[in-house]
Each structure stands twice: as structure tokens, then as C-alpha cells.
Amino acid sequence: MDTELTTLTARLLAHRVIERGDPLARRALMDDGFRAELDQRLADVGLRLVENPYAEHLAVAMLPELTESVFGSGDAWMNNNMGLPRDGVALLVILWALIVLPKRERQIARVEAGKENQSDMFGAQKPLETGEAVSTGVSEDAVYADFGKALGGRTRFNANLGRLANLGFVVRRNRMIAEGPMLDLLIDYGHLAPRIIEGALSEVLGARREAAQEAAQRNGEEGEGA
Q: Would you say which domain of life the source belongs to (predicted)?
């Protein structure tokens, strides 16, 4: 067990994220004794394992009680340890809201639907759906049209988007922004989601949702007409 613990701890620190399906990651999620020792090893250096049943990866983050001593306080407070400027952090939160919030709604809806239709006694232990089945990307051009000027213009927007891609928060493909392995792990859904849903981004997200529904409805009507 000691060798596997050492290997998993080193991989988490070196690679920052590990796929949930990895044998050592699965053991950390299923073996209580192994998980307890892993948690203790990470806690000894001020870290904790970060995972949630909706995410495809595991990662490590700082223990909350060490935040002030590491990041400082007052005017000296650092809002991240990845070199992201303030507009980069703002873009990160926006992309999280546009990609992860809708994904989580779909995942929760599927789980609830599964409970209603569940007939086998072991259904509750089946893995939750993740990946492309529930996660969709957003257009770079659409995000820039909505938020680009507020985030410093095209040059700053592209630079920060590149930083987020390099850090593993997002993946860029053909001018589309998709979820990266870090996006659904290092932002606290329970803490941030209510603020976004009820706060400044609520109107933008609501308008996007309505537009998507209208487009889907139009596509459906066109398909029926054909």
C-alpha cells in the first residue's frame, strides 16, 4: 500500500490531475483505508484531494485553513497561484458558468430521471454520466461578443484564453471552447453556483438558455417540415 500511496501522491503533484478511471484513482475512491492514508499524506503538506461524482478527473487543492497564510491577506492577497491576472480569473468564472453549470443541470436531471425509472436494486451504484454525453462547448466568438470588451479587448481575451488552456481549465478546438480536466474540480460548485445563478450573470445565462431552446425548437420544426 505504501508504494501505491507514494505513486498516487507523486502523480497528483506532478500531473495536477488524474483520470477518475485510473486504477489508483479508483482505489482512492473505493478503499476507505487507502483514502484515509492518502488524505493524511496530502494534509501533511497542506493539500486535500478534490473530486466530485460528476467530474472525470481528480486533483489536489490547498486546505482552506491555509489560504490566508499562503495567499496573504488585505492588499497583499493573491487571488490565485497560477499567474492569472484579474481579467483572466473573470474569464475563468464566466467559462465555468457557461460550460459547467448547464452540464451539471443535465447530469442532475439524468440522475433524477434514473431514480424515477430505476427498477434494479443496484441501480444507485451505477456511475454517473460524464464527458461529451453531457458536457458541451461554447463558441469563442460568442463569448467574446458578450464579454470581450469588459475583459480588455481581443488581445487580452485571446491571451487569457490561452493561459486557461495551458493550465488545463479549457480545451480549444476549431474556435470552440470545451471543458478541460481542471474546470469542474477547482471551482466550488456549491459555493459559486447560487451566486452566479442569482447574480450578475443570471440575465446573460438566461438569455443564452432561451436562445438555445428557440434554436432547438426551430431545428425540430424544420426537421418535421422536411
A: Bacteria
